[in-house]
Amino acid sequence: MTSRTTQTVVRFSSPFRLPGFDGVQPAGEYRVDYDEESIDSVSRLAWLRVGAFIHLPAIAAQSSTQQMMPIHLSDLETALEKDHKPS
Predict the structure, then answer these.
(1) How many CB atoms lie within 10 A of CB 79?
(2) How far apart are CA 60 and CA 52, in angstroms?
(3) What letters, b where the CB count within 10 A reaches 16 and e where it falls short, cover 43-71?
(4) Environment class of residue 2 by beta-carbon count within 10 Å: exposed (0-12), middle (13-18) or buried (19+)?
């Protein structure tokens, strides 16, 4: 089985909370890494996301330390949907 890691940037316009994190994270752009495994198919190659990690702090934050925290894909999607809903 082949695996790969892809990266994207997500944007939160308001402070947000994710389960398992100590406190609220500030609004901003965050890099997210997705671990994916290939799904063998007769007609095409497909990828299944099997894990995700968010980089803290936000991209624009001035910090001497950074960490990569594992997150559940559904928790990230829920937080992004909540953030993008009109008030």
Answers:
(1) 19
(2) 21
(3) eeeeeeeeebbbbbebeeeeeeeeeeeeb
(4) exposed
Residues found in the chain = 87
Alpha carbon distance 55, 63 (integer Å): 12
Read off the pLDDT of residues 57-73 as tens digits, 9 standing for 90 and up: 999 888 888 899 999 99
Give 28-58 pLDDT, tens digit per residue.
Answer: 999 999 999 998 777 777 889 999 999 999 9
């495994």: which residue's tokens? Answer: 37
Residue 57 preceded by cis peptide, ω within 30: yes
What six digits make up the tokens of 64?
């001497």
Terminal Cα distance for the chain, rounded: 44
Give me 21's structure tokens: 């994190």
